[in-house]
Amino acid sequence: MIPFSCLWLGDPGAERRFEAACARRLFRPFDLVARGVAAAALLTALLSGWLGPAASNWRTTALAAASALTEILWMALNADSNVQARTALTAIRRATISLALLTSDSPQLEASPEAYAFALWLAIASGLGSLIIPGMIAPMLTKHQLPAAVAQAGVLLALRLPEASCAQAAGTAEGAALSTWAWRWLDSLFTGGVGGRQEPRAVDACRQVVVVTYAVVGVWVPCYAAWVREYNARSEFVGAGPAARRKLTWRLMCAHNVVGAVAVACLWLLLYPV
Fold first, then answer.
1. 259 near 34, Cβ under 8 Å?
2. More confident residue, 218 or 171
3. Given 91, 175, 220, 265, which residue has the most CB atoms within 10 angstroms?
4. Which of 106, 31, 105 is nearest to 75 (CA)?
5. How many structural domains are present in the chain?
6. Of the candidates 116, 94, 96, 100, the residue with the CA atom closest to the CA atom of residue 218
7. Nearest one of 4, 79, 10 to 38, comparing CA atoms
8. What residues form the membrane-spanning segments (predicted)?
């Protein structure tokens, strides 16, 4: 069995029943949390949105309106029971959360940041948070979540967010040193420290670290966790008998992650082959 396989049941009717059961059992707690987050964000926008600059006002108002409209449609379409409506509105909800995170004002990088403060700043400035948080708040079935995560990572790369954030990071001596240290550590992890590879410039080292973090923390980890949860739910739904599925053991999951680590190591070498 390979990761991200068995995403559909053979019987379309059984697949529809499983999706409805997921909406009620697996996703219902997340939907309640997302609704609370949306309400808090809307309240914050109403209380403080008009106190900032005009551009910030329009941005806050637009995002608050999109969030409010999503919740109204959620209730009107009874998305808790309507699987198709839930999928569409969850995609809109994820996009709204991502845009809110991407368009928020990033904190300023300190002149002499500690390692943890630098990592936190880089995660926010590079858009990594906008890739991780929506999947945590508004999960979907893996057949939707995986392409959504890959597409969003592609958008962040197309917007050149890693380049912009890393140019700022490399502008300080401490940021440049931390970027180079992170690159050196990951290069030793993925290559075993063989070959005497020359270190890239600090900005290039930072960009490579961010892109690989996109792949691992932004795509692989949340999507694989979603697939494991969904695979176990599908196995429980199918039950015993001729259609019973192979049990997902810890040994098999370890093998999956070894394959994933090899793929990430290949990506690392492709990003900086010399």
1. no
2. 218
3. 175
4. 31
5. 1
6. 94
7. 79
8. 32-52, 115-137, 209-227, 248-271
By the 10 Å C-beta count (0-12 exposed, 13-18 middle, 19+ buried), 82 is classed as: middle
Give the separation between CA 120 and CA 116, rounded to whole angstroms.
Answer: 6
Q: What are phi and psi of 127, to 5 degrees?
A: 85, 5
Nearest to 272 by CA among 181, 215, 209: 209
* Residue matched to tokens 């967010």: 161
User: 91-129 burial, b for 16+ CB within 10 Å, e for fewer?
Assistant: bbbbbbbbbbbbeeebeebeeebeeeebbebbbbbbbbb
Domain around 166: 12-271
Q: How far apart are the first and last CA of the chain?
A: 34
pLDDT tens-digit map of 179-234: 888 898 898 888 876 666 788 888 899 899 999 999 999 899 999 998 998 888 88
Residue whose structure tokens are 């059961």: 21
Three-class SS state of 262: helix
Q: How many CB atoms lie within 10 A of CB 34?
A: 24
Does any domain span residue 1?
A: no
Please give the model's pTM, rounded to 2 decimal places.
0.84
Classify 274 as helix, strand or coil: coil
- Assigned domain for 26 exists: yes
Total H helices, total E strands in the chain: 12, 0
Q: Are 51 and 58 in contact (CB under 8 A)?
A: no
Look at residue 4 and tell me if it is in a domain.
Answer: no
SS3 call for 139: coil
If you write DSSP's letter for every residue of 170-237 in order, what string do you get? TTSHHHHHHHHHHHHHHHHHHHTT-S-PPP--HHHHHHHHHHHHIIIIIIIHHHHHHHHHHHHHHHHH
